[in-house]
Amino acid sequence: MKINEQQSAYRAPLAGPPTSVFGRLMTIAAGVLVLVVAFMFSILALGVVLVVGVLVFAYLKWKTRHLPQDLRDLHQRMQEEASRQGGYQTPQAGGRVIEGEVISDAEYQASTTPDQQSGSEQGRATGRPPPAGER
């Protein structure tokens, strides 16, 4: 017996395409039914996930309902304590905030070369930066 004959002997023949019109209609109906049932289960699973998500959100919201007020109270207490110590002052509304790095004169002079210092001193005296060649 050859290998091809052995393999074909063990294989069960697959059902061929239905030859009658009735068989074809039954196959189409079975496929549509399977798709409808799968769609219904997917909608059900989505609904369950949505309901569980809403319940978890509601539970967390309920458990943390006092947190914003507690944080406001803590912030107010910290401001009062700092104002008693004189260390913290609240900025005025509409104020101007400028962020940057402060370089002291000693650090600036140490980082410049001697020929640049003359230009930088001139710039500091006039309030303008030194010319490009003197930097």
Would you spell out the secondary-structure blueprint of this structure?
Layout lengths: L2 H8 L10 H43 L3 H19 L19 H7 L2 H13 L9
Write down the Rg: 41 Å
Report the span from N to C terminus: 96 Å
Structural class: mainly alpha
Count of separate DSSP helical elements: 5
Give the ordered list of helices and strands: HHHHH
Helix content: 55-70%
Average pLDDT figure: 77
The description of the largest β-sheet is: none
**Rough shape?**
elongated
Strand segment count: 0
The stretches of 5 or more residues where confidence is low (pLDDT under 50) are: none
β-strand amount: under 5%
Describe the 3D structure.
By secondary structure, the chain is an all-alpha fold. Helices cover 67% and strands 0% of the residues. It contains five helices and no strands. The radius of gyration is 41 Å and the shape is elongated. It starts with a helix and ends in a 9-residue tail after the last helix.
Short description:
This protein has 135 residues and is mainly alpha-helical. 67% of the residues lie in helices and 0% in strands.
Summary tags:
135 residues; single chain; mainly alpha
